[in-house]
Write a structure and sequence with these properties.
By secondary structure, this protein is of the alpha+beta class. It contains nine helices and nine strands.
Length: about 220
C-alpha cells in the first residue's frame, strides 16, 4: 500500500481537505485531487518537476508518485503538530519542508524532525507502516544506510502503525539490537536490518502519550 492510500485511510477523509487545512498550495491540492491536466496548465513548473521524478516512481505514474509524496508530507505535518510540547521545540529538518515538489524529489518512508531543548538537540525520524505488518509480525525492517545513520546520529526513531493508530519509540543513542540481512527483496535486494518490535512496545497515538514518551528520553 502506498502513502496516498495509507494516509487516506489514516485520516478517513479526502486528503485535499486535510491539505487545505494545513495551508498547502493549489498545486498540491490539484495533485491530491488527481487533476493532472489542470496542474499541467496552471503550474507548469511543478508539473515539470513531477516528470523529472520518473526515475524514482518505480511502476507508478508520475502523478501517482506525486500523490504519495504530498500524502507523506501531510502525515508528517500531522505528527509535527501532535509532537509539539511546551518542554521542547520541534521543527522540520528536511529539504522538502517548503512543501513544494522539487526537481527529482524523492519520497521517503522517514521524516526528519529536530527536537531542541535549552541544553540539547536531537534528531527524530518517523517511519510509517500502512499495512499492519509491524503489528502483525512484530518486526520492522530498516534500510542498511538508515539503520547506520540512526546509530551514528544518535537519533530517536518513532515507528507509526497507522492501521491500529499506535506508535513505538526507539532511542538510537542506546544499543538497538538488529539482525543484518545482506539482501532484502522488498528493498530491491539491498542490505537491511531487522528490528524486533513486540506488540507490548506499541502505545495509542495521542499527543500526550507521544510527548511523555519523548520527554522520558530527553
Amino acid at each position: 500500500m502506498g502513502a496516498f492510500s495509507g494516509v487516506s485511510q489514516f485520516f478517513d477523509r479526502p486528503l485535499d481537505s486535510i491539505a487545505t487545512e494545513f495551508g498547502y498550495g493549489a498545486d498540491n491540492i490539484l495533485i491530491l485531487q488527481g487533476r493532472e491536466q489542470e496542474l499541467r496548465t496552471a503550474f507548469p513548473g511543478t508539473y515539470r518537476n513531477i516528470r523529472s521524478c520518473i526515475q524514482h516512481a518505480d511502476r507508478r505514474t508520475p502523478l501517482a508518485y506525486a500523490q504519495d509524496l504530498v500524502a507523506s508530507w501531510l502525515i508528517e505535518d500531522f505528527f509535527l503538530k501532535i509532537l509539539s510540547s511546551e518542554q521542547y521545540t520541534i521543527t522540520l529538518n528536511g529539504a522538502d519542508q517548503g512543501r513544494k515538489i522539487l526537481e527529482s524529489s524523492r519520497t521517503s518512508a522517514s521524516s526528519d524532525f529536530l527536537i531542541t531543548t535549552p541544553t540539547k538537540q536531537i534528531r527524530l525520524e518517523l517511519m510509517n507502516d500502512y499495512t499492519g505488518f509491524w503489528r502483525r509480525r512484530e518486526i520492522l525492517h530498516l534500510r542498511n544506510d538508515k539503520y547506520i545513520r540512526l546509530k551514528e546520529t544518535g537519533s530517536l526513531f518513532i515507528a507509526v502503525a497507522t492501521p491500529s493508530n499506535e506508535f513505538a519509540l526507539f532511542d538510537f543513542r542506546e544499543e538497538v539490537p538488529a539482525r543484518y540481512i545482506p539482501s532484502h527483496q522488498p528493498y530491491g535486494g539491498k542490505p537491511a536490518y531487522e528490528i524486533q518490535i513486540p506488540f507490548t512496545l506499541f502505545q495509542p497515538i495521542t499527543a500526550h502519550g507521544i510527548e511523555q514518551s519523548i520527554l522520558q528520553l530527553l
